[in-house]
Amino acid sequence: MQLQVLGCSGGIGAGQRTTSLLLDDRILIDAGTGVGDLSFEALLNIDHVFLTHAHMDHIACLPMLLDTAFGSRAEPVTVHATQASIDVLRRHIFNWHIWPDFAAIPDSRNPFLRFAVMEQGDRVDIPGGHITALPALHTVPAVAYALHSDDGCIVFSGDTADHAPFWEAVNQIDDLSALIIETAFADQDADLARTALHFSPGALLNALGQMQHETDVWITHLKPADHALIMQQLHDDPAQGRRFARLQPGQRLDF
Asked: What is the pTM of this model?
């Protein structure tokens, strides 16, 4: 499988795009502003969207994706998310006030948007592998995702703070190829990070002591003003066999 980074920033502006990953051309993991750089033809290929949670920076382009593709493809788009996230989308986005309810058009028996509930521990089979929802801890109900191919697995944390069940789930994966994990705030904003249930570098370094795998760690969701400082405050740990690198838009990970 191939995972393409469409957006991996904690903000916008000057080439920054918010969180979205494209898995093998037809599956989005989150739908932040990075989706907007896809061509029209590429947007029409999207069959499934897996959302970690319902915060704006992770769903911003979902309404526009549906609007763009509507009428130009025959099959509906399936959005996989927790029931809590689906409830938020129905109530606050696809409500005819903010955006048309694509779950009811062209009609409720044949909607262009289909919701599929995916809670922690649930698994969805996809061509060449499967996706499993893992525990995460954020200010709203959230999940992480384990993306499994026949040859390896990439774990994407979504937005989360330190959470023992997350690390327990990661440690049960035998073929972990890489960990993509958020570190939104620099250490001088550690109090804010704790309040917002995000990682800062010091908190991540402490939390990684719970991970048994020796694998590279890709850092995502950095605030644009502090991305260089955040990476400076993280440091490689040769004793644990771990290196840190900043995820980059346009990057492709094969696994």
From this structure: 0.97
